[in-house]
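Figure caption, in words: inputs first, then the predicted bound structure.
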Amino acid sequence: MLAAALVLGSLAGSALAFLTPVDGMDLFARNAQVSSGCSTNGPASCHNTTAQSNLCCFESPGGLVLQVQFWDTDPSTGPSDSWTIHGLWPDNCDGTFEEDCDPSRDYTDISGLLTAQGASDTLSFMEEFWVSDDESSEDFWEHEWSTHGTCYSTLEPSCLPAGSPKGAEAVAFFNTVVGLFQTLPTYDWLASAGITPSATKTYTLSEITNAIQSAHGFTPSLDCDDDTTIFQISYYFNLKGSVIDGEFDPINMAEQGSCASEGLKYLPKSGSSTRRS
Ligand SMILES: *[C@@H]1O[C@H](CO)[C@@H](O)[C@H](O)[C@H]1NC(C)=O
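Bound structure (2-acetamido-2-deoxy-beta-D-glucopyranose present):
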C-alpha cells in the first residue's frame, strides 16, 4: 500500500490525471451491482390478483422459478462434496414454460462478459460449481442463458438503468443464480441428516425430501436416471420484485420429479477433490 502510494506520488501530474479515472472505473465495475429500483413489497409472482403492468418489477409469465442442481456421477463433475448448478428456470404459473425467448440476446463469451462487467468472483464460482458432464462450461452457460435467461420479463434490457452496458442483464442473471445456489447447500443438508453418497446404500424418496424440508422448510423435486439413480434436484420459488435483486420466496415443489419412491441411489462421485470455495 505504502509502495503503491509512493509510486503514484512520484508520477507527474499528467500521468496521474490519466491513471486516476482508469483506476476509478475499475473500482466502479468491481463494486457495481445493477439495481432494478423495484420494490419487494408487491405481490409475489403467480400470486397477483389483478394484472400487473410493470413487468420489469413483476416476473411474468415465468413466475414459478426453479433453481435446478445436478448430482453428476457418470461422469462426475464438480467437487465430490457439492451438488452443482444446472440453472434457474422460469416456469409459467401452471407448469408450462417458455424457452429461447430472444435469439438477439444469445450472448457468446459469457466469461468475457462477466469479467468485463465486474463479475469475476461470480465467474470463478461458476468455473467450480456450474459445470457440465457433456459440454464445455462456456457452452453450458451460453445455453442456460439463451434458453432460460432470455425469458425473464424482469431481465429485459429496457428494465435496466439507462446506459447499462450490453449484456448487463445476463451478468445480473449469473450473479443471481450463483447467489441463490449458495443459499441451497443440498450436500450439507443431506449430510446433516445422515444421507451421504454411497455405492451400496439406498434411500427412500421421502427420506431425502424430508431431510431437505427440515433444513430448508420446503420440499424439492428429485429426478433420477432409470427411476432410481439420483441426478437432479429442483427448488421452487416465487419472486417479489426483479430477478436482479428481488426476493425469492421458497415454495413446495409444484411437480413430482422422476424418482421412484424407494430404492434410490445417491452414488459417490469419482475422484476426491472437495470444494475450494
Ligand atoms: C397477473 O399479472 C399478469 C401480468 O400482468 C397477468 O397476465 C395475469 O393475468 C395476472 N393474474 C391475475 C389473476 O390477475
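The chain has eight helices and five strands.
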